[in-house]
Design goal:
Layout lengths: L12 H8 L3 H10 L6 E2 L5 E2 L2 H15 L4 H12 L5 H35 L9 H7 L1
Antiparallel strand pairs: 1-2
Helix pairs in contact: 1-3
Protein name: Cu(I)-responsive transcriptional regulator
Main location: cytoplasm
Organism: Azohydromonas caseinilytica
């Protein structure tokens, strides 16, 4: 009976991308940024990935899903890979990110409220006068 196991030490970029949920283009990008270490290549130059790289790509994808910046992800990866890390450093990064998200949410809420107010004051008919355009020109 043939084994259904996949050789996890020789995944091509498409297979690694599919397993991690990251596009092949982003795999190359993360590698170029140094978030993913340079991987082995075949004699013909094709990248070869293993489970460790797929696991790292999943980590990066999850961090991106949570809105962390590339700089924050780089810092988090270093901490993740350092078994002697302090969890306080990880918590600091997360708390700073939460504060940044709160700031951005407040900014977006203010934008939304302004646009709602402008849209409600616009007649939206055949007349040329428009408070939205008036506001934008200032």
């Amino acid at each position: 009976m043939l084994s259904a196991a996949i050789d996890t030490q020789s995944l091509n970029i498409g297979e690694a991308a599919a397993r991690s949920g990251v596009s092949a283009k982003m795999v190359r990008h993360y590698e170029s940024l140094g978030l993913l270490p340079k991987v082995r290549r075949t004699d013909s130059g094709y990248r070869q990935y293993g489970e460790a790289e797929v696991h790292t790509l999943r980590f990066i994808r999850r961090a991106r899903d949570l809105g962390f910046s590339m700089a924050e992800i780089s810092e988090l990866l270093k901490l993740w890979q350092n078994r002697r890390r302090s969890s306080a450093a990880v918590k600091r990064i997360a708390q700073e990110h939460v504060a940044d998200l709160e700031r951005r949410i407040a900014e977006m809420t203010a934008m939304k409220e302004t646009l709602e107010q402008l849209a409600s004051s616009c007649h939206g008919d055949h007349r040329p006068d428009c408070p939205i355009l008036d506001d934008l020109q200032h």
